[in-house]
């Protein structure tokens, strides 16, 4: 299995991390339906930035995301997260447990971990790692690539410099302000315009 990350997905998950730099962030990974050999992550939907609100907001968010995927003929393909502490590179047990549940519906589901130490205005390499379960159900690193990596990293750097992350809305924020769209269409439109 190989994993491709679209510019839109990468941009949204990095901006989510920048929007809430002092909190752990989590979100859903959305993919095109495939034969199982390639996981093409086409979107990322930010869910939370607070550990305390996780279980309730996550359950409601996943229902909404599942409906969205059904309408768009996409699939829920896993979860992403960034740890709260800059140097913490451990896999988040809550995120892996949620992804294990997703695996029952999508056996190609993955976990994407943001590497806070590699994220910045002038990132020269992908600031993340992708994990999938092996035959023993242990989470192992998987090879992945970001589409148009050089251009995508440059575009994300420009988005950070222009403080586009201030416009990002996660599902937790949407619950406080229902008019705020956690699908972040303005960020997706920005990525499409730049690319």
TrEMBL record:
<protein>
    <recommendedName>
        <fullName>MPN domain-containing protein</fullName>
    </recommendedName>
</protein>
<feature type="domain" description="MPN">
    <location>
        <begin position="3"/>
        <end position="135"/>
    </location>
</feature>
<comment type="similarity">
    <text>Belongs to the EMC8/EMC9 family.</text>
</comment>
<dbReference type="InterPro" id="IPR037518">
    <property type="entry name" value="MPN"/>
</dbReference>
<dbReference type="Pfam" id="PF03665">
    <property type="entry name" value="UPF0172"/>
</dbReference>
<dbReference type="GO" id="GO:0072546">
    <property type="term" value="C:EMC complex"/>
</dbReference>
<dbReference type="InterPro" id="IPR005366">
    <property type="entry name" value="EMC8/9"/>
</dbReference>
């Amino acid at each position: 299995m190989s994993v491709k990350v679209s510019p839109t997905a990468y941009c949204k998950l990095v901006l989510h991390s920048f929007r809430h730099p002092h909190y752990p962030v989590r979100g859903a990974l959305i993919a095109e339906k495939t034969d199982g050999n390639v996981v093409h992550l086409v979107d990322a939907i930010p869910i939370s930035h607070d550990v305390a609100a996780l279980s309730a907001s996550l359950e409601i968010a996943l229902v909404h995301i599942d409906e969205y995927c059904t309408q768009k003929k996409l699939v829920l393909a896993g979860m992403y997260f960034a740890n709260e502490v800059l140097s913490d590179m451990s896999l988040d047990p809550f995120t892996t447990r949620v992804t294990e549940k997703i695996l029952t519906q999508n056996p190609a589901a993955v976990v994407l971990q943001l590497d806070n130490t590699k994220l910045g205005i002038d990132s020269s390499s992908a600031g993340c790692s992708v994990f999938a379960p092996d035959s023993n159900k242990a989470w192992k690193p998987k090879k992945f690539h970001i589409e148009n990596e050089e251009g995508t990293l440059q575009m994300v750097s420009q988005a950070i410099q222009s403080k586009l992350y201030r416009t990002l809305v996660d599902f937790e924020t949407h619950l406080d302000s229902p008019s705020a769209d956690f699908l972040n269409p303005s960020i997706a439109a920005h990525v499409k315009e730049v690319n």
